[in-house]
Amino acid sequence: MIQKELLKLKKEITSNELNLINIFLKKRDGQSYLLNHSLLIDQSLNKLWKELDFKNSASLIACGGFGRRELFPYSDIDLLILIPKKLDTLLSQKIEHFITLLWDLGLRIGHSVRNLSETKKEIKKDITVQTNLLESRYLAGNKTLFKELNKIIRDTLIPHQFYEGKLKEQDRRHQKYNQSAYQLEPNIKESPGGLRDLQMIQWIGKSHITGFTLEKLNQKKYLDTQNYEQLIKTDQFIKNLRILLHIIANQNEDRLLFDYQNQLSQFLKYKKTPHKKKSELLMRDVYQAINFTTYINEVLLKKLNPKRSPAINVIKNNKYLVIQENFLEISPSFKKKSIAPYIFDIFITFQNHISINSLGPKLLVMMQNAVKEINPAFRKDKKNQEKFLSILKSNDKVNRTLRIMNKCNLIGAYIPAFGKIVSQMQHDLFHIYTVDEHILNVIRNLRRFAKEELKHEFPDCYDLFKNYQKKYILYLAALFHDIAKGRGGDHSELGAKDVDNFAKLNHLPIEDHKLINWLVKSHLLMSHTAQKFDLSDPLIIEEFANKMQNKENLISLYLLTVADIRATSPHVWNQWKATLLKNLFNYTLNYLDQDKLSSKDLISKRKEKAAMFLKNYNIENHHYKALWKNFGENYFYRYTEEEIAWQTRLLFSHLAPTKPIIRVRHRPNGEGIEVLIYQKNSRYIFNKICHFFDEIGYNIAAAKIFTTQHDYALNLFDLLDANPKSVSYQGLFKFIEKELTNRFEIHRESKPIKLSERSRQATHHSFDTKISILETDQSSVYQLEVITDDRHGLLSLISDQLTKEEISINHAKINTLGSRAEDTFLITYKDHLKMSDRKINDLVKKLNQAIA
Q1: What angle do CA 53, 54, 55 make, to 5 degrees?
Q2: Domain 3-157, CATH number (from 3.40.50.300, 3.30.460.10, 3.40.640.10, 3.40.605.10)
Q3: Which of 96, 119, 700, 730 gives a 20 to 30 Å CA spacing to 841?
Q4: Selecting from 1.10.10.10, 3.40.50.2000, 1.20.120.330, 3.90.1150.10, what CATH number does the domain 159-308 have?
Q5: Residues 581-599 pLDDT 10s
């Protein structure tokens, strides 16, 4: 083919593809677009094949999505060129030329060249190849070869082996996405509940049912009319969305990234509401489609199992349930129209039979259909109330039961407030799941505390949970803790009111009701205290303990908080946060156990413990008496006994050094390292340290800034992610000690720090920076809080601005939650002067401008 003809064909293909896209954008008929796009490529391939005069020397075969005539705008065109036993030079050259021409035409080709024997080996070796060829379609060339290929496909395909292999493959794919499609940027092709799960139904059907299509499912033995129509509607919705996504992204993109969600919702003419953006309404529909796909995938894969056994096992004293293939299934003798009166009994039976791992397909469909019958009368029925609470009080399968209930929309039907947050997005930069998925993840984490084999994850939580008497209280607190999100107002307060309504309706014991209400109201209190305040200060512990009131509340909140933070995102939880929460729990427990000792008594005990540590190193009181005196009494409020002992060992012979003393060590109870800086006080110390760690790429997690009575700065910095693979800890410690010392001695200017770009998530959600400055109990000390999207250089930028305004930092708690930073500082103005309202407002304005 000459260059001129090639260019003409390329223009023709481009023009026709553009025309198909324009027709789709007008009519939104995805099925028609996919078919016509496939036909367009068919014609082009046939034209080239004929042009190169292949005749019967080989067979050109369409595979995969192209084979089933579902070619998306930027999908690969999968081809198999089937050749005779041996590939001669002439045929090899023709094939090479053919593929080159396809690339020159701008077609995205995925191809393989094999003979029948090689193809047979690949089919036996790789289930992906077998699946791809299951949808093969003849295009051009040798028809006999194609017929022989079809015979090989039929002969090598053993339906039950194919079924088991595809289930394992699907499970691996789901695992890759953390078994959840309810992430804020789902992959609509590969995630659980995506297009692949719908294609799975077709592959399994085609493997053992001649001429299988989705339309064949419109039979009573497979689906009722309602579910069949919903399946077709969902299939069309996801396909249309994927076509649009390819068009908007201008590439093969299957992730619904935030950038595209806005454009898609605009394009699909969604209209915002007072509490929800257009993109949220689009994503609500996406998650509902995902939920239905997950449900129908399970139902149909169970029904289409080629080895499905008709054998049933009767359950003693149960007239309407049986066990079939390890599933709980409806009995063939059940003749009533509705399953609604027995819904909770079914789940109680499911929990009581440990070996049963799921519900059968008929029962799942009946459950889904019964949702509309869960009405106010059903909720007011005392027997139903007792049964629902019985499910939560079970020792087995609570998490699995609630997952199945949510899949069938039963939780939202029984607790209407829960129904409102199903498929709802969260825009706080650290939750990566929808609200309902996050809540179920919290319950899953609580259940993990009960498992002996997972004891190593949280030994203390395992022991506390094991001895916790009424576990259902924690499950209900988890169900309600975020139930009021998206309504406007304080979701903790609104959620507590929902608890009151539920408790009243379901006749919860007064004490249980009070505790659940308190947990929902207070569910952010422990993480807030641990991540924003100095836990070595006895006054902070005393204040927190007073809010806890008793040990039961403390233990309940600790278990709920750990489960909650771990359920937000895999990137939010780390050993640093685990240690903070554990320390706060232990300090508060000790305080409550010691009959609420005064802060003075606690400091005396702290000194005694530090002295005992030092004695182990043969360091006696007379060695450090002068050091402690010069540090002053406030020093003991700022550091723990272990930190005091470590610092005293390093500094007792260096009361007033002329050069900085900098030492680095591993953190005693968690990941990361600690850096101690001791030198003559200067206003620029904190600023220089921030710049230094920003420049070398380490994250400051917390900083204790203390000035001794003899005007020396004693600062302690906690660093995270401080062990790059290329540097040994020993080398890293020496590097920090040497470089930081040089930085202070040479008085070198710090390099200007520029904030990194905002994340896509922060840009999409228009996340606003919030800055507040409040007075504290100490007249000249203020609390500065900065909540913004996390970016490299943020801490240095804040420090630069405070230094310019002659403001010193006394304490810093740096809290990163996913892509969100919540940094808290205790600050003082020059010479400990009080700041006027005008000065405070001016400082807030300047910080906002600097961050923006």
Answers
A1: 90
A2: 3.30.460.10
A3: 700
A4: 1.20.120.330
A5: 999 999 999 999 887 778 8
